[in-house]
Amino acid sequence: MIQVVPYKAAHFESLTAQEGQAYLRAEFTMEQAAALEGTANAFTALDESGAVLCSAGVVEYWPNRAEAWAFVSPLAKKEGFAVTRAVRRFLHITPIRRVEAAVDINFVEGVRWVNALGFSLASPWPMKAYKPDGADCWLYARVK
User: By residue range, what is the domain housing residue 67?
Assistant: First the structure.
């Protein structure tokens, strides 16, 4: 069983990201992590021992448009369905109408998960050079 709690930067600091997201650790600073605290736009899922399984949320671009983000621990596999339900519930209750997600075109598990969360491919072409290393990403959107 998981516990869903308000996001704190300390959650990000203690989380070991899954292999497909490891590159983001160098790009996402503690200052950025702290800026997400105290809003209704982020949460953390913890396991029974208090270990961070996933921190996730949205960053609003303007009213009714935001980009989803999630840092997922390899520990989340054990509670995968519960974590997915928590993220789906969050996306359902957010008042933001359009939520976008970028997923590396080679990150098969990420593509599978974003589809399970109710996102649809927003463009038939990948976004070229989207990642810091110049790799391409798919753009997905979930529109209410």
Answer: 3-143
Count CB-CB contacts under 10 A for residue 128. Answer: 9
Tokens of 67: 């980009």
Looking at the structure of the chain, the number of domains it has is 1
Q: What is the CATH number of the domain that holds 85?
A: 3.40.630.30
Alpha-carbon span 69 to 17, nearest angstrom:
13
- Residue 16, token pair as written in the block: 């070991």
Burial grade of 41 (CB within 10 A; 0-12, 13-18, 19 or more)? middle
101 strand-pairing partners: 140
pLDDT tens by residue, 132-141: 889 999 999 9
Residue-wise pLDDT for 93-144, tens only, equals 999 999 999 999 999 999 999 999 999 999 999 999 999 889 999 999 999 9
Cα 42 → chain centroid: 9
Q: What is the 3-state secondary structure (H, E, C) of 98-109?
A: EEEEEEECCCHH
